From TrEMBL:
InterPro entries recorded: PAS, PAS-like_dom_sf, PAS_fold_3, Period_circadian_regulator
Entry annotated with the keyword Nucleus: yes
Keyword Nucleus: yes
Domain of life: Eukaryota
Domain PAS, residue spans: 114-176
Protein name: Period circadian protein
Amino acid sequence: IGRSFIDFVHSRDRSLFASQITSGLAVPKNVPGGSTALEKATVFENTSSNMVCRIRKYRGLDSGFGVKERSISYMPFLLKLSFKNIWDDDINVTYLVIQATPFFSAFKVPHEPVENPIPFVIRHAANGNLEYIDPESVPYLGYLPQDLLDKDALQLYHPSDLGYLQHVYEIIVREGVVPRTRTYRMQAQNGDYLKLETEWSS
């Protein structure tokens, strides 16, 4: 209590976290249906955004009430950010409300087949640069979305699958869509490969 939340956010995610808050504080000047202070405050409170970031884990205390000497570790969370106005002694105070949901790996042992996997979306440009990574992919691939943005999607595919994927891309260019493909491999954050089936579209 009393510490700044951003102190617990991984240094690689702090700029993204700050930009999400800044964009959330920017209330539109023109509010549909009117522009009174009350209406603007209502829009402000109803505005929320999501992001994924790494939050520092609590290191615990030893028997002597001193912080244990061990390395700092972080855990990925999906954050839902929203703002709430609260009146306190006739002063309107704005609070940032953070709802954090932890991510856990979808795998417990190597080579484990996943039952009822959750689909996720990845979008990249024609040159291969990744433009969007669904947060639902985190338990499977291990990357945070911001870690992959502007990276080359082709670098994630297994070299042995590139010939087949080239054929898939040729069909997409010609027809605009490809039904669910056969299994191919994509590299996860730990260096291993995940087998995927994909429905492609342009």
